[in-house]
Amino acid sequence: MSIDAASLRASSAAAQPRGRGRRSTLASIGLHGALSVASLIAVFPVFWVVVVSFKPDAKAIEATPSLFNDSSLDNYTDVLTGAKGSFLAWFGNSVLIAALTTVLGVLLAATTAYALSRFRFPGRPWLLLSFLVVQMFPFAVLIVPLYNILLKLGLQGSALGLVLVYCSTAIPFCTFMLKSYFDGIPADIDEAGRVDGLSPLGVFWRLVLPLARPGLAVTGFYSFIVAWSEVAFASAFLSAADESKTLAVGLQVFVQQNRAEWGHLAAASVLVAVPAVIVFYAVQRFLVSGLAAGSVKG
């Protein structure tokens, strides 16, 4: 029995869903135009900071500064050589604090999230609730109690004290994210590992963590950004000495009550953003899957 082409086209058209129609050409043009305008609005401030970073301080505040006239690398040279602030010391402090916060925060959050995902123990619901409640408090409210705690522990003014503070704010969110991700990993993997003779720690370290790399990338990136760009805690809990500041706090040197070095501030801001961009591109392939898994599973 032969089937003609018209019948095939008719059956194919009937099989297609009728709920969604093709977008019209005018609607597509309007949508892409709106997205283009929104993208330009979002990118322009960053572009202008880069432009200002090449301008002398006096030219940076002009109403209509030119893009190429008076441009030089003097601002970057002054910032990197220490002629304006102790940028390299700030950079080293920020790298140390951000790295310790990322490693310690992800390690503690991963072990806590795994325990909450796999084990049932007294107080488990209240522990989850406490993590949620902690996220509801503004950071400014926590400065005074955290300051008193660090003072009693002898950690006030030290980098280790600031790392512990950052971990206390990052771990609750990271725990919630990783618990949702661990819930999506079949428990049969744990059983198979124990049958093969692995300890609970071995199962967690050798089997579960490699499967949770997207979730670890998301939480690691979050912990890094928290420590890299935070200002309030770093201003309150670090020593007032210039060499003890982080980058986010050190940038305030360029804007004082009686003067503002906008060109140097813009150059330092660009340099501060570079490590964050590098870290983002290093983990970007895990971010989408990790965020999606952490938001819908649980």
Automatic annotation (TrEMBL):
Q: Which GO terms describe its molecular function?
A: ABC-type maltose transporter activity
Q: Locate the ABC transmembrane type-1 domain: which residues?
A: 91-283
**Where located?**
Cell membrane
**InterPro entries, per database record:** BP-dep_ABC_trans_perm (IPR050901), MetI-like (IPR000515), MetI-like_sf (IPR035906)
GO terms for cellular component: plasma membrane
Keywords for this entry?
A: Cell membrane, Membrane, Sugar transport, Transmembrane, Transmembrane helix, Transport
- What is the membrane topology noted in the UniProt record heading this document? Multi-pass membrane protein
Membrane spanning stretches: 26-50, 87-114, 126-147, 159-178, 261-283
- Tell me the Gene Ontology biological-process terms attached to this UniProt entry: maltodextrin transmembrane transport
Quick one: where is this thing mainly located? membrane
Family, similarity comment: Belongs to the binding-protein-dependent transport system permease family. MalFG subfamily.
Q: What is this protein called?
A: Carbohydrate ABC transporter permease
Q: To which species is this protein native?
A: Saccharopolyspora aridisoli
